[in-house]
């Protein structure tokens, strides 16, 4: 058995198809006719654009708009005049061949994105290398492996999968994916989950162990892979596969059911989204609202700021679609770790502790923050929008943002423009500072939403993208759990809603603890909503108090997590 990282749930049993892409050898060559070489590059660029656009359209039709946006991001990169301009300059000024110019320019950008340490930027680095290879293959006349043509019952085995390769997979034929590289948050893993294909990534030495035609079994939850296993293992995993498929079907009975515990405690199970199109999945899985709409994605992968009107239409679309259910929209959370040339952001030495989020927005009131707040207020006339301010560390930041909202309300009143008069303005609690003075914030803000990803990172002083210290990154750490419990207690004392939009909100092992602490709202990926509702409905919060008390008595993250895992599996303390 080989161990990797589970990237997409489910059990896959099938025949290995090893996909090995031709290794490109890029040499620096001097060209005599730069103009002819420029035309050669432009031809390859246009072909790559056409192919990527066709792939994005196909993915949008088969899977959904949200998933197609990954490839639409590739189209944006290929259309970026800054990128193509630098490649053209290298051809003209250095008289080098197109393949080499593409190699050097794209690698520079990819290395820059990688160095930022942020997961989103690392995905963009992967995207940049993907488009680089696509253009070079066109120039070299090398055909990519046609993944769409794999036979039924295939387990796709590869060193790594680029987003464009994953997008071409036919889920009716591919029953599993195993790669030697990659991570759970990579675009390829996201696409595998969207296509509902079981996947295991980061299996060391995989390519040396598997050959075409081998029988492979994989568990996308446990991150386990078996090559040519015994008949007993095959039968065991076939049973597991049937159980998984039945459980998935059984979850459908929770559509339309209120999220209420056995002792009558009602909570809201809502969704995190990044684009207006994501709302379709929220409705499909019966989400009770939107707990986090990340607005920064409206600002990325474009060459100019989105206008107030564009933002208004995006927010209005989500608010109207949710038909009165709460829609929490986070104001722009962006900083020096994001590559957005038109914003003129200088690269921060330490972007996670620097000029970002509310700090940046309050400094750029006129051109960025006010148009966004005005768009949010106008859109609130079409639904139940709530405004959330990110990365708040002191009460002055919240007061200044709230004062801007009040100023814009008066402006809209004077113009006779409708908006939700009692619109709520809350904060994302994601810093140690905000947690420590949660009692002060709770007296002034309208709601809390706990961002566990950053709260854990800041509490533990750990960059979660740094593999050397990632062992310290755990929401089960007693320091983080005490912080979460304190934040919830402060909110409950003042009678304000307290939600959670970090990954912990949908973690089956964490949910009993959060219910015991008194969390009101759980926000997660739409696909996790029904599974979470089933769990919520199975618990009695009075019984969970003893569980929480015992969990909080442990000294290490490992002890807490192990105890909670055993409780969830056995259902008893």
Kindly describe this structure.
This protein is of the alpha/beta class and 573 residues long. 48% of the residues lie in helices and 13% in strands. The protein contains 22 helices and 16 strands. It has an 8-stranded mixed sheet with strand order 1-8-7-3-4-5-6-2. β10, α11 and β11 (326-330) form a beta-alpha-beta unit. α1 (34-62) packs antiparallel against α2, α1 (34-62) crosses α5 (119-140) and α3 packs across α4. The longest helix is centred in the first third of the chain and has 29 residues, at 34-62. The radius of gyration is 25 Å and the shape is globular. The two termini are 32 Å apart. One of its GO terms (cellular component) is cytoplasm. Residues 151-223 form the PEP-utilising enzyme mobile domain. Pfam families: PEP-utilisers_N, PEP-utilizers, PEP-utilizers_C. It comes from Candidatus Enterocloster faecavium. One of its GO terms (biological process) is phosphoenolpyruvate-dependent sugar phosphotransferase system.
Question: How are the SSEs placed, and which strands pair?
Answer:
Blueprint: E1 2-3, E2 5-8, E3 11-19, H1 34-62, H2 65-78, H3 81-94, H4 98-115, H5 119-140, E4 154-158, H6 163-167, E5 174-179, H7 187-194, E6 199-201, H8 206-209, E7 215-219, E8 224-227, H9 231-250, E9 268-273, H10 279-284, E10 290-294, H11 308-322, E11 326-330, H12 357-363, H13 365-379, E12 384-389, H14 395-415, E13 425-429, H15 432-436, H16 438-442, E14 447-450, H17 452-460, H18 478-494, E15 497-500, H19 511-517, E16 521-524, H20 529-538, H21 541-551, H22 557-570
Subcellular location: Cytoplasm
EC number: 2.7.3.9
GO molecular function: kinase activity; metal ion binding; phosphoenolpyruvate-protein phosphotransferase activity
